[in-house]
Write a structure and sequence with these properties.
The complex is a heterodimer. By secondary structure, chain A is an all-alpha fold. Chain A contains 16 helices and no strands. Chain A has one domain: Hypothetical protein af1432. The relative contact order of chain A is 0.14. Chain B has two domains: about 50 residues, Molybdopterin biosynthesis moea protein, domain 2 (Alpha-Beta Complex), CATH 3.90.105.10; about 35 residues, no CATH class. In chain B, α2 packs antiparallel against α3. The chains are: A mainly alpha, B alpha+beta.
Chain lengths: ~280, ~100
């Protein structure tokens, strides 16, 4: 895509909310998130006004992935317990993935699996804000969603190409668009006023050594991503397992028993969240 | 439980959820084993994708899963630590489906 420069591409993806395929509640959510002063109350009001979205969010926070199984019965209670950033991430995850379920079947499962694995790993590593790490797992491939929504035909061609050529979707994106989904994830999460840490994790999940503030968290998302691809859960754009980053691997220092446990917990959590979009 | 695109359906796959048309009318019940003629029916109804039993859909036996596992790892067999990861996932699959 030589004729589209990066700046023009950035303008285009940042104007996602103008796409005719974006439902109005999601458009409102995106507008609310752009303002860093948006309060928990405004977000919780928006969710409560949309019964379908409210049900999905409640299902999600009550699933084992978000750790309050069956305990949260109202949206405002969930928002209070999980905090603004986690709720924003969940909302975005639930509403946007719903929109793209048809264009990339399996990306939701991949993301859900990463969220679950990241939660277990974060707890193992003693990270207090493990919910935020889990949200990073849910949103790490968000840039792919944006690319598919903006360039459905081109992205489909890329997916077919990489399966035949044996290269990764990550490399193919770079070749074709000049940027990859991790960089696009950074543009969007910055635009939507997500915290610095979440932006850094998403931006560096393919090069975890580059993170400054979130070295362990980025390593967790990187390893969760590789683990889900190894497990073959869902689909993330190409059928190949990428090589794990050695620095990230050593930093986490996981035993085989640890990894087995992560996989077992993940199966249970993903199973329980099934049917969220059925 | 994966959703499989209609174009990728193969005879012998078993539905894990009922197939309904756009108005919600039941076309095929859960547990139906697909045949060529049923797959044609699904294509003719313009149904995009259906739920199939087993993690990988087609040939969800453990043997098939291990073949798929080898294929996924084919580019990175010799990369550092990938042998550990593969061993862990293989054991996990055997525990789940063995």
């Amino acid at each position: 895509m030589d004729d589209i420069d990066i700046k023009a591409l950035r303008r285009k993806v940042e104007n996602l909310q103008t796409l005719p395929t974006i439902p109005s509640v999601l458009r409102q959510l995106m507008e609310l998130m752009e303002n860093p002063k948006t309060s928990l109350m405004q977000i919780s009001k928006l969710i409560s006004n949309d019964p379908v979205l409210a049900t999905k969010i409640l299902k999600m926070v009550n699933s084992p992935i978000y750790g309050f199984p069956g305990r949260i019965s109202t949206v405002s209670q969930g928002v209070m317990l999980l905090g603004l950033n986690v709720v924003k991430g969940l909302l975005l995850g639930v509403s946007v993935f719903d929109l793209m379920q048809k264009s990339m079947i399996g990306l939701w499962e991949h993301s859900l699996g990463c969220a679950a694995a990241a939660r277990t790993l974060a707890k193992k590593k003693g990270i207090k804000e493990f919910e935020e790490v889990s949200v990073a797992g849910l949103l790490h491939d968000f840039g792919k969603v944006i690319l598919i929504l903006q360039f459905p035909k081109e992205y489909e061609t890329l997916i077919n190409d990489v399966a035949n050529k044996g290269i990764s979707i990550y490399e193919a994106e770079r070749d074709f668009f000049g940027v990859n989904h991790a960089e696009i994830g950074v543009w969007m999460t910055e635009k939507w006023s997500f915290p610095r840490n979440l932006v850094e994790i998403i931006g560096n999940h393919h090069r975890p050594g580059s993170s400054q503030y979130t070295r362990v968290e980025t390593a967790i998302i990187h390893v969760s991503d590789v683990l889900m691809r190894a497990r073959g859960l869902g689909f993330a754009g190409d059928p190949w397992v990428p090589a794990v980053n050695q620095t990230a691997w050593k930093l986490l220092d996981l035993s085989e028993a640890d990894l087995q446990e992560v996989l077992k917990d993940m199966e249970v959590a993903v199973e329980a969240s099934e049917g969220l979009f059925a | 439980m994966p959703k499989i695109l209609a174009e990728n359906l193969k005879p012998g796959m078993i539905l894990s959820k009922p197939v309904t048309n756009a108005s919600g009318i039941l076309i095929l019940p859960e547990e139906t084993e697909l045949t060529d003629s049923l797959i044609r029916k699904i294509h003719n109804m313009d149904i995009e994708a259906v739920y199939i039993k087993g993690e990988q859909g087609a040939g969800s036996s453990l043997d098939q899963m291990l073949v798929d596992l080898d294929r996924r790892f084919s580019n990175v067999e010799t990369a550092p630590y990938m042998d550990v990861l593969k061993r862990v996932v293989k054991k996990h699959m055997e525990d789940l489906y063995g």
